[in-house]
């Protein structure tokens, strides 16, 4: 059996993926992959995701320059979530989020409100302006 056949793909042919920084353990982002994205990620050693909004493959860093080197891929016990252990690379090391922050998980619930707890490392207008 092909290793990709062991994954429980959802009804859209996607699997949720968590990108975790290998050195710190920080969870940097959550995204989706289809079969081709997961195969390409394994082949290239760099994260390739499926963009649901654009309906196309998205090689992380193709626009921002903030790519993800994949060191390890893990599958959960139910075979329906993939964990990538990555090193975040780029012009400004450590930026994984399109908001210019280290992590997409930069808001914390404090009482009854969300509080931003991570700074913007680079203005996203400067990251995506070409």
UniProtKB/TrEMBL annotation:
Pathway: Amino-acid biosynthesis; L-histidine biosynthesis; L-histidine from 5-phospho-alpha-D-ribose 1-diphosphate: step 3/9. Coiled coil: none annotated. Its cofactor is Mg(2+); Zn(2+). The keyword Hydrolase applies. It catalyses: 1-(5-phospho-beta-D-ribosyl)-5'-AMP + H2O = 1-(5-phospho-beta-D-ribosyl)-5-[(5-phospho-beta-D-ribosylamino)methylideneamino]imidazole-4-carboxamide. One of its GO terms (molecular function) is phosphoribosyl-AMP cyclohydrolase activity. It is found in: Cytoplasm. Keywords: Amino-acid biosynthesis, Cytoplasm, Histidine biosynthesis, Hydrolase, Magnesium, Metal-binding, Zinc. It holds the Pfam family PRA-CH. Binds 1 Mg(2+) ion per subunit. Binds 1 zinc ion per subunit. Homodimer. Catalyzes the hydrolysis of the adenine ring of phosphoribosyl-AMP. Belongs to the PRA-CH family. This is Phosphoribosyl-AMP cyclohydrolase. It comes from Roseateles subflavus. The gene is hisI.
């Amino acid at each position: 059996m092909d290793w990709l056949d062991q994954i429980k793909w959802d009804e859209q042919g996607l699997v949720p993926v968590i990108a975790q920084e290998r050195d710190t353990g920080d969870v940097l982002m959550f995204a989706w992959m289809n079969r081709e994205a997961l195969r390409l990620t394994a082949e290239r050693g760099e994260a390739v995701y499926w963009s649901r909004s654009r309906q196309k493959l998205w090689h992380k860093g193709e626009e921002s320059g903030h790519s993800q080197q994949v060191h390890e891929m893990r599958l959960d016990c139910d075979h329906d979530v993939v964990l990538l252990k990555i090193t975040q690379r780029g012009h400004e090391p450590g930026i994984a989020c399109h908001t210019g922050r280290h992590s997409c998980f930069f808001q914390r619930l404090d009482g009854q409100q969300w509080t931003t707890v991570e700074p913007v490392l680079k203005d996203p207008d400067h990251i995506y302006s070409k």
